[in-house]
């Protein structure tokens, strides 16, 4: 999990491909976490006990599930995002300085 933006910036300078992979996995983790939160909210009241301690425990539990989903790539979002970025901005996900990329139309 990305804890510090400066760590990511350093990684982007030393190993841009690894930084891109990490960011894509982190995005999948955040998406999975939001998905789990929304699913939790859709459960009827009284289905699970409701107290502040229970809410904190459930949030921690859902964060861990989301982290495992993101790291394993179970939803496939990280690989799709990484592939899209690489197709449009190169293998390391970066544009050359001063270069403007026009996104490729992948619907053709």
Describe this structure in words.
The protein is mainly α and 108 residues long. It has one domain (5-89). It is 65% helix and 0% strand. The protein contains four helices and no strands. The protein has helices at 5-14, 16-41, 52-72, 77-89. The longest helix has 26 residues, at 16-41. The protein is elongated, with a radius of gyration of 18 Å. The protein starts with a helix and ends in a 19-residue tail after the last helix.
Features:
108 residues, elongated, mainly alpha
Structural category is mainly alpha
**Share of helix among residues?**
55-70%
Q: How many angstroms separate the termini?
A: 36 Å
Integer tally of domains = 1
The portion of residues forming beta strands comes to under 5%
Find the count of extended strands (DSSP E, 2+ residues).
Answer: 0
Backbone CA Rg: 18 Å
What series of H and E elements makes up the topology?
HHHH
Enumerate how many helices there are, as a single number.
4
Mean pLDDT: 82
Largest sheet: none
| Uncertain runs | none
**Shape assignment:** elongated
Which helices and strands appear, and what pairs or packs with what?
Layout: H1 5-14, H2 16-41, H3 52-72, H4 77-89
Helix pairs in contact: 1-2, 2-3, 2-4
Quick summary:
The protein contains four helices and no strands.
């Amino acid at each position: 999990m990305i804890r510090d933006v400066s760590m990511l910036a350093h990684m982007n300078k030393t190993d841009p491909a690894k930084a891109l992979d990490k960011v894509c996995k982190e995005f999948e983790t955040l998406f999975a976490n939001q998905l789990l939160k929304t699913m939790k909210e859709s459960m009827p009241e009284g289905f699970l006990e409701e107290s502040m301690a229970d809410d904190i425990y459930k949030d921690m539990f859902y964060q861990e599930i989301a982290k495992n989903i993101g790291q394993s790539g179970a939803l496939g979002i990280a690989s799709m995002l990484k592939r899209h970025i690489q197709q449009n901005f190169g293998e390391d996900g970066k544009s050359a300085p001063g270069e403007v990329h026009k996104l490729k139309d992948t619907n053709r």
